[in-house]
Write a structure and sequence with these properties.
Number of helices: 6
Helix content: 55-70%
Distance between the termini: 31 Å
Shape: elongated
Number of strands: 2
């Protein structure tokens, strides 16, 4: 296969395993969201798929490629409040990988998805089936996941407009504009 030359104004950021994870997670979360009560078997399948995807993402965050790893997560989380403050003042900053708000979204989403899937699994066991706090936690946290997903999409759209860059295309192709 011939070597592919990098576009001069673009840089490879998101590798294919990370992009496959991202879009698979979006698919299975939406599938799980729309199937309870309609198809419990499909709902459970989607939940188990999300558990596998979370496990993959944690592993890829440790052993994956540069922009997939969690190496800068603490620093970016500490920077998130200041980043959001600057964002509201019209200063977006440029990041090759996730910006601090995106990092906070990643952590919040993975944590909520873990709680949602664990409580969903618990509700299928004999010990926890029908236990109100398990069902309530699963329901509330699953709702919070959808709220975060909407905030995530709106944030990507807003940053795309503010930075004049199609960030969604980056998560499809893996390429982003080179920082200047």
């Amino acid at each position: 296969m011939p070597a592919r030359s990098d576009p001069p104004d673009m840089v490879k950021v998101w590798d294919w395993p990370l992009r496959a994870f991202h879009w698979s997670l979006a698919f299975f979360v939406l599938l799980a969201w729309f199937t309870p009560g309609r198809s419990d078997a499909l709902h459970r399948f989607a939940g188990y798929a999300v558990i596998v995807l979370i496990a993959f993402r944690i592993g890829w965050g440790v052993f994956g490629t540069r922009f997939s790893r969690f190496h800068a997560i603490r620093r970016r989380l500490r920077a998130a409040p200041g980043y959001l403050w600057n964002l509201f003042r019209g200063r977006t900053g440029r990041y090759r990988g996730l910006n601090p708000a995106g990092t906070a979204m990643l952590v919040a989403m993975l944590m909520l998805l873990a709680v949602s899937t664990i409580t969903g699994w618990m509700s299928t066991t004999v010990r926890f089936f029908g236990v109100p706090w398990v069902e309530d936690t699963h329901g509330y946290v699953s709702d919070a996941v959808i709220v975060l997903a909407v905030i995530h999409v709106l944030g990507v759209i807003a940053m795309s407009v503010l930075q004049k860059e199609n960030l969604m295309r980056g998560m499809v192709t893996g390429w982003k504009k080179r920082q200047r």
